[in-house]
Amino acid sequence: MGYSRLRELNPRLIYLTIKGFGTYGPYSKFKSFDPIAQAASGALAVTGFPGSPPLRPGPTIGDTGTGIHAACGVLAAYIQRERTGRGQKVEVSMQDAVLNYVRVPMRHSYITHQASPRVGNRLGVAVPGDIYRCAPGGPNDYVYLFCSTAEMWEAFCRTLGQPELTTDPRFNDNAARHRNVEELTRIVEEWTSRRPKRDVMRLMGEAGVPCGAVLDSVELLNDPHMKERGMIVSIDHPVRGRFTMPGCPVKLEDSPADVTSAPLLGQHNREVYGMMLGLNDNELERLRQEGVI
I want to staple 165 with a disulfide (CB 3.0 to 4.6 A). Which of 66, 156, 157, 227 is the partner? Predict the structure, then answer.
């Protein structure tokens, strides 16, 4: 009952298949999990520091990223069906999806015909563009700062209380800052290391300088901004009680997502089997006692 047979029964059917390496190609029979997809797509090769082994990115871009690509594909097929009346097969491989996320780092290869290098936290296109230590010096007490324009650089220097850096020949343009990046890092960290990361983020943000505090998972679950946006929500779970978790990142004005707990195993047996198979309560109870459901 694959797609070729099902579309004969319903030409409007939109059929989705997700596989680690797809259904065709030399790798199509290979199994995959998130880190396998990240390795085979180039994500590990560009993650890490110069001279270090490849490093697995922490977010599950192989799993979650594939699902997002698949959802986009199904929605595109749906829009196409509204125009033509015909459904189609949608296929997404995990390797393809993660490779799509590696498009920007691949630019290096277009120019040099060499493998894109690992550059750590420094983007290389603008300075400052790195992480900087903050007080009190814990494992995640850092901010990421990035200045991509002259206006940002000037605002950055004013916020540091050192506007004279804008005319300092060591730092007066991006090329000079590249050449003297270690000295600039020392100056920046002298300032950031005396302040908590959220204070640094606020001061830079108010000045128009892109800056993100390195927030860990516990901090995010308690973050007031995330809570106000509904990205961190608390729900009532029938077994675990009050439970705090990420909400929906897509904000729809006319149809906002209502985040609820996932159903328990077998919670909707009556509705599903009753609707699909026409089983009554006595039949369902017998199947439950026999361990069938």
Answer: 157
Domain boundaries, the chain: 3-112, 129-214, 216-259, 263-293
DSSP structural state of residue 164:
G
- The model's pTM is 0.85
CA distances in angstroms from 125 to 52, 109, 116, 133, listed in the order given: 21, 15, 14, 21
Please state the CATH superfamily assignment of the domain spanning residues 129-214 in this structure: formyl-coa transferase, domain 3 (3.30.1540.10)
Return the CATH number of 3-112, one of 3.40.50.10540, 3.30.559.70, 3.30.1330.10, 3.30.980.10. 3.40.50.10540
- The predicted-structure confidence for 105-124, as pLDDT tens digits, reads as follows 999 999 999 999 999 999 87
Q: What is the pLDDT of residues 142-160, one digit of tens each?
A: 999 999 999 999 999 999 9
- How far the first Cα of the chain sits from its last, in Å, is 24
**DSSP helix/strand/coil, 54:** coil
